[in-house]
Amino acid sequence: MKIPKPTDPEDESAWRAFSRACERHHESLRGRVPEHALALLKLKGVDEGLLVEADYNRAERTLKVVLRCGHLQMGYYDLVLQFHDAELSPRNRRVLRLIADTTQSCGVYEFDLYRFELDLASDGALILRMEFWGFHFPDMWVEIRCRTFEWHTEPRPNQELPNIPRYRER
């Protein structure tokens, strides 16, 4: 249910209302989606996360997304998301590739993660949306439909990204 952000960055009451609307929506999913999916929404340090890699296997219907998260005060970590029975539309594949192609290093990137949004489709599929802030491009959403997903974190010594292909699709 893409909850739109306020258009005025200075309107504090609109941002508070936006935050409450997101919390109410996600709370309405309690008992209908796995608790670990809801816990992801409260994970600290994900804002400004950078895409390390996305590996989409269309034949096996799996998607692995790794984001470098955190900051100097709390430390850095990789958030590793593994989706099963995953679907990425052609549009979402293009957006993920654009984000990957414009992320060169921790100092040279076009998009960083702003937030997650979770939904439940009428057929029971989980929908995880990732909203990325754009600097020279408009903000972008990536929507992943799946039956299940899990996530974990891995500590990292700094924000430096490995020099690997950021997007793979098979």
Model description:
With 170 residues, the chain is of the alpha+beta class. It contains 3 helices and 8 strands; from the N terminus they run H-H-E-E-E-H-E-E-E-E-E. It has one domain. The strands form 2 sheets. It has a 5-stranded mixed sheet with strand order 7-3-2-1-8. A 3-stranded antiparallel sheet has the order 4-5-6. A hairpin with a 3-residue loop joins strand 2 and strand 3. It is globular. The protein starts with 11 loop residues before the first helix and ends with a strand.
Short description:
The chain is an alpha+beta fold. It has 3 helices and 8 strands; from the N terminus they run ααβββαβββββ.
List the helices and strands and how they pair.
Layout: H1 12-27, H2 35-40, E1 50-57, E2 62-71, E3 75-84, H3 90-101, E4 111-120, E5 126-134, E6 140-146, E7 148-156, E8 167-169
Parallel strand pairs: 1-8
Antiparallel strand pairs: 1-2, 2-3, 3-7, 4-5, 5-6
